[in-house]
């Protein structure tokens, strides 16, 4: 899919994986809405524009609905690059229908909503039976609410807008044109959850499991659905750790033996957008790591 002149919605777009992906899409010519809780970071990124460097990481959060600012990009790589798109911030709670509808409407105003990237998510580390007693049920419910229901909420409302798009031109092989691409974020914890990750693993397993049935349903409209399952990435959750601990985590990855970078996630997300055969699949992005029990 060619994103030039089209709009994209990136949840968790104020920082990390979401920010890197938003910048990558905007540099390709998309008008991107950053849907996130963090108003300070979201507005700062929108004001900086698509020429910003994407550093740090993390899947964004939830919040209350609101409006944002726009920021055209600066500092294109070369004269032959496509015109930069825009970055606009919309304070968004992915678990709230009205909030997500507002973000979708903000995107539609900037062009046909053709790309959704779900990066918003939260994690807790808590044992089923720990020293303080059983796992807090409210904590478990919150993770499911944000990571699974929040992801589904944005999918259903963005898909509603996408199926009304005019399809791209038919491909050389005669396949029907595309109307949209939806990319979700799971985790290797969906497959090899560690002790203390019951809630997080369950939520990411839910994201993986709904990828194929939604892809099958939306295929008739020319909307593709795929999921990325990252390994150990340089996120805000890891940013608080001592450097020694971060290096140790990176060494657990067979190759390259380091933390993944947000730009590497963004590169895969953009390839999914470009490659029309990628559909209904969950792709591990993990340097061949297989998580140990703890």
């Amino acid at each position: 899919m060619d994103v030039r002149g089209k709009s994209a919605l990136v949840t968790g777009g104020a920082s990390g994986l979401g920010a890197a992906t938003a910048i990558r899409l905007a540099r390709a010519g998309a008008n991107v809405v950053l849907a996130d809780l963090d108003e300070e970071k979201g507005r700062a990124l929108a004001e900086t524009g698509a020429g910003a460097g994407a550093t740090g990481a993390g899947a964004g959060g939830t919040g209350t609905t609101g409006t944002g600012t726009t920021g055209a990009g600066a500092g294109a790589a070369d004269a032959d690059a496509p015109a930069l798109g825009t970055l606009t911030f919309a304070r968004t709670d992915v678990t709230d229908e009205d909030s997500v509808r507002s973000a979708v409407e903000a995107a539609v105003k900037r062009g046909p909503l053709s790309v959704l990237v779900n990066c918003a998510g939260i994690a807790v580390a808590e044992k089923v039976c720990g020293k303080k007693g059983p796992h807090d049920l409210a904590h478990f419910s919150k993770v499911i609410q944000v990571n699974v229901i929040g992801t589904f909420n944005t999918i259903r409302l963005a898909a509603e807008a996408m199926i009304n798009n005019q399809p791209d031109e038919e491909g050389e092989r005669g396949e029907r044109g595309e109307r949209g691409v939806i990319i979700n974020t799971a985790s290797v914890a969906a497959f090899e959850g560690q002790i203390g990750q019951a809630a997080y693993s369950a939520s990411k397993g839910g994201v993986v499991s709904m990828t194929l049935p939604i892809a099958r349903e939306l295929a008739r409209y020319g909307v593709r659905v795929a999921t990325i399952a990252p390994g150990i990435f340089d996120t805000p959750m890891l940013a608080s750790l001592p450097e020694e601990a971060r290096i140790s985590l990176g060494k657990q990855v067979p190759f390259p033996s380091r933390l993944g970078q947000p730009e590497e996630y963004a590169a895969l997300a953009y390839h999914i957008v470009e490659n029309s055969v990628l559909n209904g699949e969950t792709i591990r992005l993990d340097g061949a790591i297989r998580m140990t029990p703890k």
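The mean pLDDT is 88. The helical segments are 16-27, 39-48, 97-108, 137-162, 198-218, 236-239, 243-251, 262-274.
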